[in-house]
Amino acid sequence: MAISAARVGGATRAGAHSALSLLLLACALAPPACVRGNQVRPNETSSTGGGRSASTDGGALDLTEGPPLAPTPLANDSLWQQAARGDPIDLGRLAEREGAAGLLTGLEQGRSLALTALLALPYAEDGELALGRLCGLATSSAPSQIEPVLRAVQGIAQKMPRDRERLDVEGVRSCSAPLAALSVSERLSPHARDLASSARALLSELTQN
Predict the structure, then answer these.
(1) Which of 28, 69, 82, 120 could pair with 91 as two cysteines, CB 3.0-4.6 Å apart?
(2) Coil, helix or strand for 24?
(3) Which residues make Cβ contacts (< 8 Å) with residue 98, sequence separation at least 6?
(4) What is the dihedral of CA 26, 28, 33, 37, to 10 degrees?
């Protein structure tokens, strides 16, 4: 016996409605299941250096001495190892080879690699491209670990050419509010507050020119 088109259409609509209801219920119970698998979160950054980032949310990092939390080729790179000693010549060589992007890759690995990257960033010709990330990192860092970050920001600000067009105007400006707050934070040591205040003043001069 033939089934009427109306009955078929009704059954199809009912099935679709049921499937949609189940999907909405699944999303309510487990929201991540409804996110596309290849979607990138705003704070995620790619790492050409391999390994996983020591930051799980694009915010705070482990800035203590030691090997990275996950394997990365950078840990065995001879220039990174030499620069870790803090010699200005080696830091300059590393900065010249890696640029801001490469140093930020090292930063995201955390631990000693991150500390080396922070030392080298002021030597990078395009170091100002890292300011947005560094000022965000400063706001999320523990008071005991913040000084290397603030020294990097201050160092970059000191070496930025005054007579050159800014490479990242928004990144420079985004540091103003965080540095202002950190410069008066009672959670920080007087030295850390001075670093934040000095960096803010230097960057303010650059944005006014």
Answers:
(1) 120
(2) helix
(3) 105, 106, 120, 124
(4) 130
Phi-psi region of 110 (alpha: psi -120 to 50; beta: other; left: phi over 0): left
Kindly state the tokens that stand for 181: 């707050």
Residues in the chain: 209
Question: What angle, 0 to 180 degrees and rounded to 10, lies between the N-to-C axes of helices 88-107 and 131-140?
Answer: 70
Q: What is the DSSP string of 63-92?
A: -SSSS-SS--GGGG-HHHHHHTT--HHHHH
Q: How far apart, in whole angstroms, are the C-alpha atoms of residue 84 and residue 90?
A: 8
Q: How far apart are alpha carbons 196 and 181 in whole angstroms?
A: 9
Report phi then psi at 67, rounded to 5: -70, 160
Read off the pLDDT of residues 8-29 as tens digits, 9 standing for 90 and up: 444 444 444 444 444 443 444 3
Helices assigned H by DSSP within 30-130: 78-83, 88-107, 111-120
Compute the half-sphere exposure of residue 138: CA atoms within 13 Å on the CB side of its CA. 34
Beta-carbon neighbour count of residue 87 at 10 Å? 12
For residue 173, count CB atoms less than 10 angstroms from its CB and return exposed for 0-12, middle for 13-18, buried for 19 or more. middle
Tens of pLDDT, residue by residue over 184-208, are: 999 999 999 999 999 999 998 877 7
Checking 92-97 for CB contacts under 8 A at 24+ apart, the result is 92/120, 92/123, 94/120, 94/123, 95/120, 95/121, 95/122, 95/123, 95/124, 95/125, 95/127, 96/123, 96/124, 96/125
List the domain boundaries for the chain: 59-208
Prediction pTM value: 0.71
